[in-house]
Amino acid sequence: MQKVKIELGVNSYDIYVGSGLLPLAGLRLKELGFIGRAVIITDTNVKKHYAGIMEDGLTSAGYDVEILEIPPGEQNKTLKTAARLYDELSRINTERITPVLALGGGVTGDLAGFVAATYMRGVPYIQAPTTLLAMTDSSIGGKTAVDLGRLKNIIGAFYQPKLVVADINTLKTLPAAELANGMAEVIKHAAIMDKEFFVYLESNMDKVLALDADVMEYVIARNVRIKAGVVSKDEKETGLREILNYGHTVGHAVEVVSNFKLKHGQAVAIGMAAEAKISRRLGMLSAKDADRLGKLIIRAGLPARIPDFDVKKIMQAMTHDKKVRHGRLNFALLKSLGEAFITNDVDAAFVEEVISGGE
Ligand SMILES: NC(=O)c1ccc[n+]([C@@H]2O[C@H](COP(=O)([O-])OP(=O)(O)OC[C@H]3O[C@@H](n4cnc5c(N)ncnc54)[C@H](O)[C@@H]3O)[C@@H](O)[C@H]2O)c1
Ligand SMILES: [Zn+2]
């Protein structure tokens, strides 16, 4: 097991990563001084596998447990589902000291986190992420949100959990496509911040995909440290944290143009490959490094080429995006593997040429 402390002053908390941690969540809660009630919010898929395990651990630690179930999927990350959860929390007489535990992927974490942030102006919130994406990305950083129609994450709050428990055993039931989805952000973290970790992933990708317990614990904990390091320096996303947008300027546009048929991780993978090319064409990244990145993306089971979409539509989606300032495109790009920089001065016509296939 590894424990990573997220340093955010009074909002600091620990992230535990390891095998078999779910049954022990109750003990962790006790260490934090919580007593009485505990509410688990989980989706139908995750509930089937893991709610009982978590409930048993909490009950043995002396908690009186309530389980609130939500339907799975991004389409349920809405104010409507949040409103239903508020009703249920009030029906079971949740108090201000009652911890809410989000057991599931990023959808459950974002939604339960938003509900915890707003119910009674904030009840304690604990995350038990069960997807690779949630373990390595969405559970770190304190962003919670729901969607409003097609506007993703538009209603939300910065709200830090009291504790994160990432039990890697839960990944065993995760569909392969969801594992690959999470790998996109893992590769991103290595590419922007950590060359040594990038090399590690090159050597160990097969073990990652086979969910080797030691390798997964190492990969997730190292990721957590990378993202946490960025977030601790920039909690409210005003500067440095923008390097986490690597792959997301083109990626998000491609995701929109695909009408969200591409998963976020697939879109980010395509975006990373495209933005590596932009970095290379700007004379920053070497051709060899861009190639290594492309190969790693493909080995993770992700796409590295822009599908046959209308480039004009991609450009349109990109310029509608918030990553545009003063008519120039804002990008996080690579100087080399392991080193990113932020620029708000990339010419749109140049980007269009590069993503149209120009060498
Ligand atoms: N807050 C942030 O900083 C942040 C960062 C990145 C992404 N996100 C959000 O995260 C969400 C995506 O998260 P996700 O990819 O985890 O999706 P998800 O929560 O929808 O989970 C994916 C699917 O896997 C199922 N599932 C989850 N864990 C499982 C397990 N262990 N075994 C079997 N099935 C399991 C879920 O029921 C769901 O069907 C998006 O809404 C995105 O906006 C938030
Ligand atoms: Zn992302």
What does this structure look like?
By secondary structure, the protein is of the alpha/beta class. The protein contains 13 helices and 12 strands. It has helices at residues 25-31, 44-60, 79-91, 106-118, 132-138, 176-193, 195-209, 213-233, 248-257, 264-281, 287-299, 311-320, 348-355; strands at 2-6, 13-18, 37-43, 64-70, 100-104, 125-129, 143-148, 151-158, 163-167, 324-325, 328-336, 339-346. The strands form 3 sheets. It has a 7-stranded mixed β-sheet with strand order 1-2-9-6-5-3-4, sandwiched between helices. A 3-stranded antiparallel β-sheet has the order 10-11-12. The protein is globular, with a radius of gyration of 20 Å. The structure holds nicotinamide-adenine-dinucleotide and zinc ion.
Write down the overall geometry. Answer: globular
User: Count of DSSP helices?
Assistant: 13
Report the β-strand fraction as a percent range.
15-25%
Main β-sheet: number of strands, strand sense, barrel status? 7 strands, mixed
Structural class of the helix and strand makeup?
alpha/beta
In the sheet with the most strands, the strands line up as 1-2-9-6-5-3-4
Element-level helix/strand string: EEHEHEHEHEHEEEHHHHHHHEEEH
Bound molecules: nicotinamide-adenine-dinucleotide, zinc ion
What is the overall pLDDT average? 94
Termini, distance in Å? 46 Å
Instruction: Please compute the radius of gyration using only Cα atoms.
Output: 20 Å
Helix content: 40-55%
